[in-house]
UniProtKB/TrEMBL annotation:
Name of the protein this chain belongs to: Group II intron reverse transcriptase/maturase
SUPFAM superfamilies: DNA/RNA polymerases (SSF56672)
InterPro entries in the cross-refs: DNA/RNA_pol_sf, Group_II_RT_mat, GrpII_Intron_Splice-Mob/Def, RT_dom
Pfam families, A to Z: RVT_1
Keyword entries, A-Z: Nucleotidyltransferase, RNA-directed DNA polymerase, Transferase
Species this protein is from: Haloechinothrix alba
GO molecular function terms noted in the UniProt entry: RNA-directed DNA polymerase activity
Residues covered by the Reverse transcriptase domain: 53-293
PANTHER family, per database record: BLR2052 PROTEIN, NUCLEAR INTRON MATURASE 1, MITOCHONDRIAL-RELATED
């Protein structure tokens, strides 16, 4: 990647780290950014392109280009969400920071945080959710309204600062947070809050903020409740309806203080109804990570039919699968 020595630079960023970042970006593929350059086109001058990234990041002179804004429909309907597509070079630079942050933050993260973490998956979250729905009668199904659109940059910076002593990590996180969005019509939008999904570093940043805003808050204020969180999608398991209301009220206050809010229409308290848990309640189903949990007919090992509170692929997820076939 060139002859410059790390000793000549203010920031000690290894060329090996840049190479590892490139390999991850190549494996993940992804669309071109505002420069319309694909991974394959980037590779036509690979050594020189990687050297430029390393040289600028090590020197403190790397400034991210605008992020390509792409509007995609939300999974469960109700408008669109903004996906930010960085250039290939910028994805590699972001991945350098992600590779530096992930080992430092992974050990502090909660066991019930499942999104974008090594050794954890959406299926792990669904399995755990199913188990707790059998054991506890009530679920707080919550939706953080426009989390990525509403996330204040100061919260991200504060969370990163608490978990790294590397000045260059904080420097580049700040620059990426302020990188403008380029809309499809070519207009460029400056940002002071929004953190578009789609960047290589956004998963670890989102997990960091929600680790303090959500996971640790619940552990401290409600140590007897369980939850599963996958990025900004979460469910909380409660023993009683009263406890579910208490948790919702506490989380509402907590998030309000951080400039975030629970979606008033999409956040609901659900009764896990089955053969043993009967009665009439307003909500007896919820959807989490593409699976709808609700009372369903099932067959016991001895062939006896029963009604259990079980998950199955949601209608929206099935529709999406059929569209992709």
């Amino acid at each position: 990647m060139g002859k410059s020595s790390p000793e000549d630079k203010p920031f000690d960023i290894s060329k090996r780290l840049v190479w590892e970042a490139y390999e991850r970006v190549k494996a993940n593929k992804g669309a071109a950014g505002v420069d319309r350059q694909s991974v394959e086109e980037f590779e036509t001058d690979l050594q020189n392109n990687l050297y430029k990234i390393w040289n600028r990041m090590s020197s403190g002179t790397y400034f991210p280009p605008p992020v390509k804004a792409v509007e995609i429909p939300k999974t469960h309907g109700g408008g669109t969400r903004t996906l930010g597509v960085p250039t290939v070079a910028d994805r590699i630079a972001q991945t350098v920071v992600a590779l530096q942050l992930e080992p430092r933050t992974e050990w502090i993260f909660h066991d019930d945080s499942y999104g974008y973490r090594p050794g954890k998956s959406a299926h792990d979250a669904l399995r755990k959710c199913r188990e707790w729905c059998w054991k506890k009668n009530w679920v707080l199904d919550l939706d953080i309204h426009k989390f990525f659109d509403s996330l204040e940059h100061r919260l991200v910076v504060k969370a990163v600062k608490a978990n790294t002593g590397q000045k260059w990590v904080l420097l580049y996180v700040k620059r990426w947070l302020k990188a403008p969005l380029q809309r499809p019509d070519g207009t460029v939008q400056e940002r002071d809050r929004e953190t578009p999904q789609g960047s290589a570093v956004s998963p670890v940043l989102a997990n960091l903020v929600l680790h303090y805003a959500f996971d640790m808050f619940l552990d401290r204020e409600f140590p007897t409740v369980e939850f599963e969180r996958y990025a900004d999608d979460a469910v909380v398991h409660c023993v009683t309806e009263r406890q579910a209301h208490q948790v919702r009220a506490a989380l509402t206050g907590r998030l309000d203080g951080l400039g975030l809010q629970l979606h008033p229409e999409k956040t609901k308290i659900v009764y896990c109804k089955d053969d043993q848990r009967r009665g009439s309640y307003e909500h007896t189903s919820f959807t989490f990570l593409g699976y709808t949990f609700q009372p369903r007919g099932a067959m016991g090992r001895d062939g006896t039919p029963f009604v259990g509170f079980q998950p199955a692929v949601s209608k929206d997820a099935l529709k999406k699968m059929h569209e992709q076939v």
